[in-house]
Amino acid sequence: MAKIIIYYSQGGTTDLIAKTLARNLNADLVRIHDLKNREGFTNRLFSSINAFRESKTDIVPAQVDLRGYDTVYFGTPTWSGNPTPAILTIIDRCDLRAKDVILFATMDSSRGESTLERLERKVKLRGARVIESFAISTKDKSQEQLINDTEAMIEMKDLRMY
Predict the structure, then answer these.
(1) CA-wise closest residue to 88 among 55, 48, 46, 58
(2) Looking at the DSSP assignment, which residues form a beta bridge with residue 3?
């Protein structure tokens, strides 16, 4: 079964987790880039508002062809309890009919579950079947701890079987 991990990462933490998943699960990897400036206090504030409103944004790549994949992972940081505009935009552009989807969120606080719930609603509307989801707390963790937490999640959720 072919797997792909599609994710957005601003600060690099979600990138590290996505790369750890890809390496351990033999999955292809596509990082979505948001073309809007999200750096600085004011931009971060508006980014959180955009995430809450589920606003779309300009992204690269603009689309991802999923025809060769059985399982699709979507990963995003949590912004004020919401998925990022970049990941919401790519989900809306994907044909997810008959795809098995696994969702993951990274978070500094405890609001990853609400992010996962919103993502699940979005992908189901696109025709996907959510088979698993998980959140990884990133607050005050080293890269080594994040890798270990991700590998432990792979084992705990038995993600190699998908």
Answers:
(1) 55
(2) 71
| The predicted structure's pLDDT at residue 81 | 80
User: pLDDT below 70 — which residues of the chain?
Assistant: 36-55, 110-112
Distance separating alpha carbons of residues 76 and 73, to the nearest angstrom: 10
**Cβ atoms of 73 and 6 closer than 8 Å:** yes
Q: What pLDDT sits at residue 114?
A: 81
- The full DSSP string for 24-57 is HHT-EEEEEEE-S---SHHHHHHHHHHHHHT---
Parallel/antiparallel/unpaired status of strands 28-34 and 100-107: unpaired
Which residues are CB-contacts of 120 (< 8 A; sequence separation ≥ 6)?
Answer: 103, 130, 133
pLDDT value for 23:
98
